[in-house]
Amino acid sequence: MMMKNSIEQKDTTTAANNNKFQDDVKFHQENRVVGRKIHNGMMKAPSPMRDPRHPSPKLRERNPEMYLDLPTRSLLDPLLSEETDLKWQPNKLSESIMKCLNFIYVRLLRTSRAMELEKSGPILRSIHSSLSSRSFRVDTTSSNTKSSLMLIQREARQQDPYGIFDTEESIPRDIGPYKNLVMFTSSSMDPKFISSPSSIPLLRKLRILMSNLQTVDLKGLTYQQKLAFWINLYNACIMHGFIQYGVPSTPEKLLALMNKATLNVGGNIINAQAIEHFILRKSAASNIKEVQRKGEWEDKESKIGELYELESMDPNVTFALCCGTRSSPAVRIYTSDGVTSELEKAKVDYLQASIVATSTKRIGFPELLLRNMNDFASDTDSLVDWVCNQLPTSGTLRKSMVDCFRTNHNVKASTIVDKIPYDYEFQYLLSI
């Protein structure tokens, strides 16, 4: 349902809310973590002196200029022109909130990229221009040019967001749709970017949309509708938390942010931890106690599950819940009509982009997958079989995995599986 009163109204209440919101925003920055090597069953960071390998040989070169070709204001106008209405259908409201947050992050990314190009001087701008024409010659001996080329190479590596090709023995292949995603890192989370004139209307819109969550009515929703709604709200809660409180510098501070960032849903204050562990997942008692211990939960928060817990858990939510780390899945918008197929696609896309197969006949599984193994298999051996069955039969990754098992046919599959440690570096993967 469309909102009926223009968000552009200039009443003093809205202006005051805007000022308060901007005053609360604080930001931090983190440095990027380099790639990994396999060592003693773990993926370890290689020497910082070694340049990462080209992430995807034989794939079509991506023009770095593409990353600056983000949505223009004309594409955002429909969102900005939506009108206020207290009778939002829950799923449409959650989708609109996620759409607005995505546009905000895209705007921040667009602004930071433009300023980065401006600071880099005419050399990098010339290279970008030349790349777009697919014909250029440049003197690579000067230090300025080398720095510019490093920026371009960093852009090109975005087609390998999990750094699976940073491992020397990794077999080159197509990683699927993830190669087309754009990385949003801490360098784009800067106070001057979020306070820019282009971001303020979207931030105002976001506050209006989120205020409508207070009166949303979830009664009568189907299982699919509730599933899509809560996945969107989990991702929205954390994305909004970063805008409010900044980028945490440690895993412990990330956990604190996930407890501190809240939404008012139907008059109940809910954070991301509650959404995941008491609504989307049927956590074991031991897991709930661990979450309560780490987050210092109170009884009132655990009662959220009694109000909103889903009838059953879809294990594929693992590949939909994004907490803003480099090891998180891509952030997407889930719909009530297509959530089942959307989760299935999210699963396959994530597996293709995050698993390592090496020429030394070893397999690297991300810690996120191993951490949630019991949702899909009883042990690592059966998890390997499950993964193979999820991948496209004609895909290179599945063929490489099968080849590894054939070569090591006398050993358990689990003995050739290494863990890729979870990377808590701030990052979002966005579809443009």
TrEMBL record:
It comes from the Eukaryota. Transmembrane segments: none annotated. Residues 50-61 have a biased composition (Basic and acidic residues). InterPro entries: DUF547. Signal peptide: none annotated. Residues 42-61 are annotated as: Disordered. It holds the Pfam family DUF547. Coiled coil: none annotated. Residues 219-351 form the DUF547 domain. This is DUF547 domain-containing protein. It comes from Stylosanthes scabra.
